[in-house]
Amino acid sequence: MTKRPSTPRTRGPKIVAVPPGPNSKAAAARKTKFISNGVRIGLPIDVTWAEGPLVCDADGNVYVDLGGGIGVQTVGHRPPSVIRAAKDQLDRLTHISFMVASYGPYLDLAERMADICPPGLTKSIFLNSGSEAIENAVKIARAATKQAWLVSFKTAFHGRTLLDISLTGKEKPYREGFGPLVREVLLADYACPYRDPENRPPAEVAKVRVEELEGLINRPEVAGRVAAVLAEPVQGEGGMIVPPKEFFPLLRRLCDEQGILLIDDEVQAGAGRTGRMWAIEHWNTVPDILVSGKAIGGGLPFGGVTGKEAVMDAPGPGSLGGTFGGNPVVCAAALKAVDEIERALPKVKRLEAAIRKRLGEMHEAHDRVGEVRGIGAMWALEFVKDPRTKEPDAELARATQRAGLRNGLLLLTAGFYNNCIRLLPPINIPIPLMEKALDLLADSLDMAVAGKAG
After folding, report:
1. Whether this model's pTM surpasses 0.85
2. How many domains does the chain contain in total?
3. Is 152 left (phi over 0), alpha (psi -120 to 50) or beta?
4. Residue 322: partners with Cβ closer than 8 Å, 6 or more residues away
5. Burial 259-273 (b: 16+ CB within 10 A, else e)
6. Residue 9: inside a domain, yes or no?
7. How far apart are CA 273 and CA 268, in angstroms?
8. CA dist 428 to 128, 232, 296, 340, Å?
9. Which of 314, 344, 374 is the last residue of a domain?
10. Are residues 192 and 306 in the same domain?
11. Kind and range of the H or E run holding 336
12. pLDDT tens figures, 352-366
């Protein structure tokens, strides 16, 4: 059995066997033999244990986790209060299905969501994942509006179901080979100033993108038939794209003028990740439906849909739900996860300042870092081959990821062109440990640029 590192919340990384070590390689061989090739593992290690900001692999290597299980571990791995709540619930009730009979954890979590969500969003349903929650949000929007068409964004990511990939513009690996997709979907350009072809100021980019979207929904075959616009307040998989502050208020106004619902996908950006409970709060905008997931579950499978009463009550009885949706163990854990997130929120400002400063220095040091962008504890380095042409450099992102692993960092790639390194550290990570991790990230980038990533 792998020995656990001592004092895991304060110690830094420790590499005892150059990853992937022999035990991780053996796990990779089993994966090749028994797991579908359609499931890709981004890092060639086999994880045996994690706590707080640290992860240990089967060869005894300890890493600082800057990916958080793709944004799930917002307050670190296995928060003690979350684990205690889940264990306690296991001794009471593991499953009955909320469609069979009600139980306290589901009701308590629904009441808590009404308290922490933007004003007017008071009714919820709970599912097993963010992908499933998006599916249900669309069902609710269509029932409420009696319309079919949906608008999303080309650089968005809303999940991996057939509907979700229809709402996601990235062809490979998400859409390729899975057609025909859902027909009643329009994909618009998101407000990303860095990749605006005319290099307009951010406020102008926001205005132009919303005007383009208005043109899409007023096409003859679509006009008056749009149910909802789905948008992430910060695009995670798209490369941590933070829109101009004008974008969401303009989008909200357009939806109101057209009688369209605004669905806010907070699966990755929400639950404290940006320094507010919900990222859309930065934009002073209230959606009609808010979709949650990832961090709310505290490490257990969770998806949620919370919205305005009239909207949420539009579907008829029995039309929403799922056998395991809102599982009592998950709901009990989620209640404590929300508590932990709220306690950690005041720490995000200092963490953001540390990340912004260090990534800014990396930007200055390397021409191939095209842009550094982010908010709160949600950041990205976008790599390009030439800062003038902005041609994406996906290989540099992968090389930095490989070098990071050797330096004791778990890094994730992202971006429409796969050319970003994204950072999703715990929002309660000790600042000295984060500063050490940022030093290691800078060294990993230097190694990658020099062609020494291994």
Report:
1. yes
2. 2
3. beta
4. 99, 127, 128, 132
5. ebbbbbbbbbbbbbb
6. no
7. 8
8. 26, 23, 15, 9
9. 344
10. yes
11. helix 328-344
12. 999 999 999 999 999
Range of the domain at 41: 22-78+346-449
Mean pLDDT of 79-90: 98
CATH number at residue 273: 3.40.640.10
Average pLDDT over residues 105-110: 98
Is the distance from CB of 139 to CB of 322 less than 8 angstroms? no
Confidence bin at 243 (pLDDT 50/70/90): very high
Residues 324 and 372 placed together within one structural domain of the fold: no
Residues in the chain: 454
Q: How confident is the model at residue 453 (pLDDT cuts 50, 70, 90)?
A: confident
Would you state the structure tokens that stand for residue 370, as one six-digit string?
């095209």
pLDDT for 10 = 53
- Sign of the Cα pseudo-torsion (112, 113, 114, 118, in order): positive
**CB of 97 closer than 8 Å to CB of 328:** no
* Residue 202 vs residues 197, 286, 363, 383: alpha-carbon distances, Å: 12, 21, 20, 21
Closest CA to 132 of 327, 412, 283, 340: 327
231 conformational bin, left if phi > 0, alpha if psi -120 to 50, beta if neither: beta
Cβ(354)–Cβ(401) under 8 Å? no
Q: Is the same domain home to 324 and 219?
A: yes
pLDDT value of position 4: 55
Distance between CA atoms of residues 354 and 409, nearest Å: 17
